[in-house]
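During the reporting period the student researcher (J.K.) took over the structure-prediction task from the postdoctoral fellow and processed the backlog of single-chain submissions. One of the processed entries is reproduced below for the supervisory committee.
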Amino acid sequence: MDYFLTEEQEMIRDLARRIAQEKILPLRVELDEKEEFPWSIMKNLAEADLFGIYLPEEYGGTSGGCFELCLVVEELSRVCAGVALCFATSALGTFPLLLFGNDQQKKKYLSAIAQGEKLVAFALTEANAGSDAGGIQTTARLEGNEYVLNGTKQWITNGGEAEIYTVIAMTDKARGSRGASAFIVEKGTPGFEFGKKEKKLGIRSSSTRELIFTDCKIPKENLLAREGMGFIVAMKTLDTSRPGIGAQAIGIAQGALDEALVYARERIQFGKPIISFQAIQHMMADMATQIEAARFLVYGAARYVDSGAKDISKISAMAKVFASDVAMKVTTDAVQILGGYGYMRDYPVEKMMRDAKITQIYEGTNQIQRNVIALQLIKEKAKGK
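J.K. obtained the following structure tokens:
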């Protein structure tokens, strides 16, 4: 379909596609098997000015938005979702700064982020605080002109590699989720350490680590917004970023369909390429239809976010849940079309299926997304909409 991209948006998409083909594809297998963070590719993306596509010009960005970010994430994910995640997570970690940072904080950090000089990570999840963000145990106590952080964050993407972390911690446990606050913590701060690098099913080139805070002191100027705003910061951040997960899922699914089409044209059975069999044609027709439907929804959600609308929770959740379910279905079907070859690491569809699964889990499981959608429907009905 023609999604009526501007000339600049087409250039961004084509640039990301070229980097994916020229820089990521040759290293895809090696990065996955070695579970190696793709620093060389992050440098390529920085040189192409892609880290600043969603940031204002005054900080070295190009004043794009969620939609432009989704275009890049989709193209990178079409080749390798793990590499794409390293890039996309820096945006996730930056959104709290962009949405809630004051002028001083933005001037201090956003220019380096836009240039790709410093990666960012977002630290919300803990062992007992995943879907239940109100269960956060990490604390931040104000002592004079400093906050003292104690606690552990779990499964933090870009952990150990990022230079800047936006961290949600409790400043008043008695207030529950209303006692959470958001902070900026820099790598190298005394009392801030990293746990082991996790071994994962998919997205293996992405780094996932624990963050450990032991009497970690940060300036009180590193508080984002104000005390008690942490839960709002986190939820607004995730609402803004979830179309990006949808874009990642679309890219994975499209990459799997691309591989299945090539294979089905070359694989001969009963004297004919298997693409000539109606059973295979119908599978591919469904795969292509599902991908296009997901892309339409994700693009619409991203544009809605960029419109400045306030009520973005429902559409962002819809985009994430639908696209990630499509990615899992399409990659599974791609493996089926390739048969035994699809199950082997010689072909990329098994990796794509492994990578697809996480899109149904992180940034809010799809079960939680359905809760978000349903609750919003109930609220709208109560208001007579």
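The committee noted the following: The first helix runs from residue 7 to 24.
J.K. will present the remaining backlog at the next meeting.
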